[in-house]
Amino acid sequence: MIQPKLGVPLEGKIRVQLNLKVDRAANIRINNIHKFPDMVFPIMWLEENYVSVGCGEGYPVYTNG
To answer: Keywords, A to Z (predicted)?
Structure first.
């Protein structure tokens, strides 16, 4: 959303994802662990949002979408 008079954004988002890369352990032969492929496990997702409520002066708010 953009404030029409000033042209400044009224909404912002930050998104972060933390992944863990696990490589195959070819030298471990217990319980067929050596057959597992290389994988990436998602560990954490963080999302922070900021949304301004209106313009405060009665101006319409334009959205792109």
So the answer is: Cell membrane, Glycoprotein, Membrane, Transmembrane, Transmembrane helix
pLDDT tens string 10-62: 778 899 999 999 888 777 778 877 778 889 999 999 999 887 765 555 555 55
Q: Could you tell me the CA-to-CA distances from 7 to 30, 40, 50, 52, 60 in Å, in that order?
A: 62, 41, 17, 14, 12
| Two tokens, residue 15 | 């998104």
Domain assignments of the chain as residue spans, ordered by start: 1-65
Alpha-carbon distance of 3 to 28, in angstroms, equals 59
Residue from 8, 10, 3 nearest 49 by CA: 10
